[in-house]
Amino acid sequence: MTLLSSAPGGASVARKAPSAPAPPPRRKQGGVILAVPALVWYLVFMVGPLVAIFVIAALRWPGMLQPVSFAGLQNVRTVLADPVFMDAVTNTAVQLVVALPLMIVGAYMLGYYVAQQPPGHRVLRYLLFIPGLISTPAKAMVFYAVLSPDGLFNGALDKVGLGSLADAWLASPSTALACLIVLDVWSGIGFTAVLFAARLGSVPDEIGEAAQLDGAGHWRAMWRIHFPVIRDFVGVVTMLQFLWTLFGSAQNVLLLTQGGPGSSSTTLSFLVYQKAFIAADLGYSQTVGVFLFLVGLAGLLTIRRVFRQNY
Fold first, then answer.
1. How far apart are CA 279 and CA 170, in angstroms?
2. 159-210 tens-digit pLDDT
3. H-helix or E-strand containing 7?
4. Secondary structure of residue 37 in the 3-state scheme
5. Helix axis angle, 152-159 relative to 136-147, nearest 10°?
6. Which of 95, 116, 123, 156 is the most exposed place for a label (fewest CB within 10 A)?
7. Rounded Cα distance, 299 and 290, in Å
8. Which of 242, 207, 284, 285 shows the shortest CA–CA distance to 98?
9. Which strand (E) or helix (H) includes residue 5?
10. Is the pTM of this model over 0.70?
């Protein structure tokens, strides 16, 4: 549309009216439509089970085919008064405090060594990755063969004259949890080291060369130069291993110790399985599941804060 405006001297000047804003492109609307199936999938299979945990935790449900009644906070009181739950909390805390630092620190040092490309570093990458390729039942069978009363470890102790130190390692209250921690570290340290080596390999060579010119040795370059550069990646890997240790320990406990002797190796994740599928107490099980979820959320937020970049 053309508008008339007065110019100095009384003459009329024609000028074009501003055009209306263009409609949004159809591509963005199509992208939103394509995202709907993924959103529905997330709501049904991610948010849905999370909501179900909180709902079932408030129910009295003695089995899948049994009648359900509302329990309110009774399940919470029952769980907090149960000494087995307190043992599971203690065992899980010990497992995280011991296994996580050993795994992350050891994997970072191994990854740094591999990233320096020593002789045979390609073969070493494959060797470190092997535990990640072995199924969990196979790992449990290997550890059972090593740590059983007549296993390889006790046989080796007897061969070197230390037979008096032999023990039923997986059946002793003082060593069962330690054996599970060793299995966790052995299973995860090689795979994590390969991840660290891949990330360290992307650090510019100029950083390492500058550190060498300043007289920094490998130890100082590893912790003072390269570690701050990949600090955020260390945080991501630590969060992944934290979640795996917290939620994935049930399978090792189930295959090797069944939570025993007594409750000396019972963890929170195994307690969820035990109460749901063995004791058929779904309300108790999901109450522990809610506690486990809150611990995982708090742990993730703490790790994120500790390993965030300072610049």
1. 23
2. 998 888 889 999 999 999 999 999 999 989 998 999 999 999 888 888 877 8
3. none
4. helix
5. 30
6. 123
7. 14
8. 242
9. strand 2-6
10. yes
For residues 289 and 281, what is the distance between their CA atoms, to the nearest angstrom? Answer: 12
* Residues whose CB falls within 8 Å of the CB of residue 284, separated by 6 or more in sequence, listed in order: 75, 78, 79, 275
Contacts of residue 45, Cβ cutoff 8 Å, sequence gap at least 6? none
Tokens found for residue 185 = 């570290």
Strands in 124-202 per DSSP E: none
Beta partners for residue 59, in sequence order: 70
Q: Residue 14 forms beta bridges with which residues? A: 4
Question: Which tokens hold the place of 301?
Answer: 């937020």
Cα–Cα distance, 195 to 201 (Å, whole number): 10
CA 162 – CA 60 distance, rounded (Å): 53
For residue 108, give Cα distances in angstroms to 200, 290, 301. 9, 32, 22
Return the DSSP state at 218: H
* Tokens 């070197």 found at: 160
